[in-house]
C-alpha cells in the first residue's frame, strides 16, 4: 500500500511539474526530450527525409540518424499526448491532426498552415496516398471514385488538408459489400471523415478502417488482408515491384510541435535536424 501511495504521489508531482509555467532559466538549462515515430511510420519517413535527418552513407544506402535517445511513439495521438504532457518535449505530427493541446512552431519563419503549404512558403509537406493491388472489388472502386471526386476532395479540405486537382464527377454505382482500408495513423483521421460522407451516398457499402502505419498498410495490401492501403509517404520501390499501385488523395503538412508552455516559436530546418540527430540537446542552444 505504501509503495502504491508513493507511486501515486510521484505521478501527481510529475503531472504538476509538467503543467507548471516555464521559467526562462528552466527552459534554457533543460534537456530537450526528443519524441519520434516508430520505424515504418510514413510520417517518420517523410520527416527524416525533409529535414535531412536521413542521409546516404558511403555505400549509397539511406541511414536514419535519429538520435538513440529519442522516445518512440506508435501513432499520432500518442505523439500529441506525450508532447502535451512534457514541458521540454518536441515532436512532429500531421498538420491536419493539430489541435490546441500542443503548439506548432514556425519553420524557417513560416507558419504551418494550408495557405503557406499551397504558396510554397512552408516546405514541410508530403502526400497522402492510397494503394491497391490488381483489380479491386466493385464496392472498393466505388469508394475510391468518391474519394477522388469533387465531393470527396471537399471533405479533404474541410478537415484541414490540401485537395488534389485531378478529380472526376462521381455517381455511386450502389455497389454492396465491405471495404477494408488499413495503414497510416496520419491518414486515418481524414479517411474516417471520407467514410462517414461516403455512407450517405452509398449506404449499401461498409467501410472498415484499421489503423497501424504506412508500411504495415502496404504489406497488408500486398498480402490481400485489406482492399486499400493508406500511406503518408510515397511508395517504396519494393512495394510497387510487389504489385501496388499508388494514388494520391491529399497533401498534408508536417507540423513540428512543442508543449504549449515552451517559449520556442520558431526553429530553422537546421535546428530541427540538429535536435533530431542529437547534436543539440539543450533548449538554451536554440533560444539564444
UniProtKB/TrEMBL annotation:
PANTHER family: PERIPLASMIC PHOSPHATE BINDING COMPONENT OF PHOSPHATE ABC TRANSPORTER (PTHR30570), PHOSPHATE-BINDING PROTEIN PSTS (PTHR30570:SF1)
Cleavable signal peptide: 1-24
Any GO BP annotation: phosphate ion transport
Name the record gives this protein: Phosphate-binding protein PstS 2
Organism of derivation: Marvinbryantia formatexigens DSM 14469
Keyword field contains Transport: yes
Assembly notes: The complex is composed of two ATP-binding proteins (PstB), two transmembrane proteins (PstC and PstA) and a solute-binding protein (PstS).
Location relative to the cell: Cell membrane
Main location: membrane
Residue intervals of the PBP domain: 28-151, 171-285
UniProt xrefs under Pfam families: PBP_like_2
Membrane-protein topology: Lipid-anchor
One GO cellular component, as annotated: plasma membrane
SUPFAM superfamilies assigned: Periplasmic binding protein-like II (SSF53850)
Function field: Part of the ABC transporter complex PstSACB involved in phosphate import.
Family: Belongs to the PstS family.
Alphabetically ordered keywords of this record: Lipoprotein, Palmitate, Phosphate transport, Signal, Transport
InterPro entries: PBP_domain (IPR024370), Phosphate_ABC_transporter (IPR050811)
